Amino acid sequence: MISPFVSKKRRTDLSLFRFLLRRVEQTTAMDETLATVLSYLPPPSVSTTASPSSSSTASDDDDRINCLPDVLLRNIISRLPTKDAARTTILSSRWRSLWASTPLRLDDAGIVPTAVTAALNSHPGPVTSARLSSEHLAYQEPDVLDSWFASLAAKNVEELSVVNGSWPAECEWRPPPGLLGCASLRRLWLGLCQFPDISGLASAFPSLQELGIVHCSMQDRELHAVLPRCPELERLAFVLTQDYPRYIHIWSGSLQSLVVWRSMVREVHLDDAPNLERLLLEPIGGASTHVKIINAPRLKIFGYFDVGLHQLKIGPTVIKDGIGMKVKPNAMVRTLRTLALKVQFGDEKQVKLVPLLLRCFPCLETLYIKVSIPCHFIIIIVCACAC
């Protein structure tokens, strides 16, 4: 509270200063959130700093670059930022054909939306990767975005990352349904947006191997509509999600890795995951997750399981505290080799549950325990067990 003995002008200045300070803190937090989201996404497939130099030590009579074979020049072009790669077309007719015959790696960083449209319209394809994350993305006319994703689909885009760079000003932005019409995708990452309307969902994503949802709201029905259409999906990640999805039920014969990282998810059920090897969890403060393992015969890595927050059910058996509880064979996961737990050793209930959990994984080789008393540190225990 500002003292009444301070002059009115002084009080006004202090109030303004505090208001500006709060705005700076809010802006800093927003920038940090955006930077965090971008750090979880696949890195750009092209250089974001390289740019052709306007000067050259070689004379016109000693043009060593033009002496290089086409295959090497295409390799160089593919590593340039999108705007610089397109600029090579003005050098000569040879360079025009080189750019057109090099698979397009599109990144909208540092270029205006009209340049994205021009690149997609002028390049015949295919498109190896596309990363759309500029602050202009959420403000584009629907027709423009529809044309972008239609062009990407027609040119068989393989990797696609879409991030709402104008977040949080447009926190409810939803990419157009046409995004889900890119049936050629092998990798898809979405961030800081709503999941696209599934009315545009392709009948199948026969090649999709990796799907990442970062600080993105994906309704349960949308998740369970997408997964059956991905017969080759190997990696599925949910990072920093808050509202949805709430229930992740896995029925997939191809999935090998499931990541739920700092996300508020109520249930993770491995209903039928015959090839799943890794279940990676990182709980967010106070969020309880029910983990149920029904059919995951190849599960090797599991954690972090928060003993105080999470609940575990293996087959029909709920693993709960109780010194006299016996672990039946159908409540054991004999394939598990690495387990990570979070335990508060000051909580007697949590401590008693640890030996019971270990009996559920009789072939364990490596155990990680993260404890919070007396301070945060990690204990690594390596144990060799014979099944």
TrEMBL record:
InterPro entries: F-box-like_dom_sf, F-box_AtFBL13-like, F-box_dom, F-box_dom-containing, LRR_dom_sf, LRR_FXL15/At3g58940/PEG3-like. Residues 62-98 form the F-box domain. PROSITE patterns: FBOX. PANTHER family: F-BOX DOMAIN-CONTAINING PROTEIN (PTHR32141:SF159), PTHR32141. This is F-box domain-containing protein. The lineage of its organism: Eukaryota, Viridiplantae, Streptophyta, Embryophyta, Tracheophyta.
